[in-house]
């Protein structure tokens, strides 16, 4: 693109006045830099609308003046206002619904009422206080962003301290008080006196970078969630939960199922979660304690942070994103962290398994496609989507119960043996919770760190025909590549290994070992206690 195109792009991004000022600054750059920028294609530049949205978010995030920036750097490891505004900006860019229609609101009220009636016959817990809401995507962001910030703050604090340490000790600060690209693209700007301290500057950059990634992930996740308990934990302030009609409509359309039936299923899940959390006051504090225990133990590899910073083309929030991603800079988990991860994974599985159990019993007489919806939910919870994986890279852990099927089977057996009152009575105290059945070392998969999980994620098959189809396809690939090179043969071997893993995952819930899962041994009942397989499980993931 030529310089005239760059001139026009600056005006479209910043308006006629600020755009001309930016063009004047651009014209004063060395010829080599201008030529380098002109050599880039127009598709390599952000769209003017994206630039304007980011400027608005930075303004709303309190980054207008150097004094504002210094104040934000001192307010914590994450700029909450910036994260929220970036997330809301993504929903506006996607043309998300700005309000909930009366029809959608009435549908949510009706199906939630029906869901609670159905649950009354299969659940010992009373309905949660209040009424479930019908939310827009923006409403979900407004209601849940504070919870995500709370979970991510300990990790963000550790990363921020690592950034400051690397800059202070290994880069010896900055020369001449200038940083190329700081909030102004390629234009060098002088740093104000109150931001020349490397410690303050890196706190600001870490604070801003974390907020930008958190906001982008929340904006993407807002397009996927169906209710307030989709992650298995209480994120919204309303204890009765919420449904997001726009997303449920898209989901029903993708499954080619009736909207009312899909909405009723989502209402059953939401109401069941709400009843459980309302009746078990220790449950959410337990999750918060386990997440905090893991996050406080996060250690940062300073050499890896230094490498990420040296690879950054500019010192700005976007360029240092790699240095705050625990997949890149996190150190192997400590034994205490592994214990917290194991306990968190089991507790998530017990919660989701209980919900799966009661939803199945409540909906089987009312929802014709309950089995299909149940299976889709199990797969989605076990794997997670791209937006959830972004959250995991920020928090450093997976919030997916890998053993949901076993937990659901366990609660079904307890229901058959002890009845509804006996089953739900296990939630009266953490020590009364049942233990998930022990698994063989080969297929043990609990909760894993983001650094380990991104290279090991496998979609577990849930029915035999899925595994058999994969096996058949792999066999065909091997036949068609009989004369291929050694690397190709290696790929086939990997595929076979993946298929074997899928068979193993599918067979686990029916393993005869699960017969003793209802044991009330105090030493193994609580998901936060030691168990003999934990070390094997964690070393398996490492």
TrEMBL record:
It holds the Pfam family Zincin_2. Residues 499-508, 518-542 have a biased composition (Basic and acidic residues). Keywords: Hydrolase. Residues 421-464, 476-542 are annotated as: Disordered. InterPro entries: Zinicin_2, Zinicin_2_N. GO terms for molecular function: hydrolase activity. It comes from the Bacteria. Residues 445-460 have a biased composition (Polar residues). Signal peptide: none annotated. This is Hydrolase.
């Amino acid at each position: 693109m030529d310089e005239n195109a760059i001139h026009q792009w600056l005006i479209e991004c910043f308006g006629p006045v600020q755009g001309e000022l930016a063009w004047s600054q651009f014209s004063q750059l060395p010829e080599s830099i201008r030529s380098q920028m002109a050599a880039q294609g127009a598709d390599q530049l952000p769209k003017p609308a994206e630039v304007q949205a980011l400027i608005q978010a930075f303004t709303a995030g309190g980054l207008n003046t150097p004094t504002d920036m210094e104040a934000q750097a001192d307010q914590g490891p994450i700029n909450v206002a910036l994260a929220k505004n970036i997330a809301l900006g993504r929903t506006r860019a996607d043309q998300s619904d700005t309000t909930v229609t009366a029809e959608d609101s009435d549908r949510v009220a009706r199906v939630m009422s029906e869901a609670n009636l159905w649950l009354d016959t299969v659940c010992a817990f009373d309905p949660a206080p209040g009424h479930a809401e019908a939310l827009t995507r923006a409403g979900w962001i407004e209601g849940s962003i504070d919870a995500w910030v709370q979970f991510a703050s300990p990790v963000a604090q550790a990363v921020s301290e690592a950034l400051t340490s690397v800059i202070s000790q290994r880069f010896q600060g900055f020369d001449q008080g200038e940083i190329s690209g700081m909030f102004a693209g390629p234009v060098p700007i002088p740093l104000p006196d109150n931001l020349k301290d490397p410690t303050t500057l890196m706190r600001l950059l870490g604070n801003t970078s974390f907020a930008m990634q958190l906001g982008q992930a929340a904006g993407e996740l807002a397009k996927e969630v169906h209710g307030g308990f989709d992650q298995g934990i209480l994120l919204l302030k309303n204890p009765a939960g919420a449904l997001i009609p726009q997303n449920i409509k898209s989901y029903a359309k993708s499954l080619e199922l009736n909207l009312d039936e899909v909405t009723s299923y989502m209402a059953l899940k939401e109401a069941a979660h709400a009843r459980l959390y309302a009746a078990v006051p220790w449950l959410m504090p337990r999750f918060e304690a386990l997440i905090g225990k893991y996050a406080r133990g996060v250690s940062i590899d300073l050499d890896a942070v230094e490498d990420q910073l040296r690879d950054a083309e500019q010192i700005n929030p976007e360029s240092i994103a790699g240095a705050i991603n625990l997949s890149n800079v996190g150190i192997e988990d400590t034994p205490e962290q592994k214990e917290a991860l194991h306990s968190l994974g089991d507790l998530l599985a017990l919660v989701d398994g209980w919900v799966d159990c009661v939803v199945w019993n409540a909906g089987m007489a009312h929802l014709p496609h309950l089995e299909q919806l149940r299976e889709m939910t199990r797969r989605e919870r076990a794997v997670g989507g791209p937006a959830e994986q972004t959250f995991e890279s920020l928090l450093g852990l997976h919030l997916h119960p890998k053993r949901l099927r076993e937990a659901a089977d366990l609660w079904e057996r307890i229901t058959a043996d002890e009845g509804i009152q006996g089953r739900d009575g296990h939630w009266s105290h953490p020590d009364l919770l049942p233990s998930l059945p022990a698994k063989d070392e080969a297929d043990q998969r609990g909760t894993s760190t983001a650094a380990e999980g991104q290279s090991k994620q496998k979609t577990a098959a849930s029915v035999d025909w899925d595994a058999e189809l994969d096996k058949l396809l792999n066999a065909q690939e091997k036949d068609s590549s009989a004369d291929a090179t050694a690397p190709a043969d290696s790929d086939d071997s990997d595929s076979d290994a993946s298929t074997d893993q899928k068979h193993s995952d599918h067979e686990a819930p029916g393993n005869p070992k699960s017969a003793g899962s209802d044991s009330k041994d105090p030493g193994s009942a609580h998901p936060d206690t030691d168990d003999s397989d934990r070390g094997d499980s964690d070393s398996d993931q490492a």
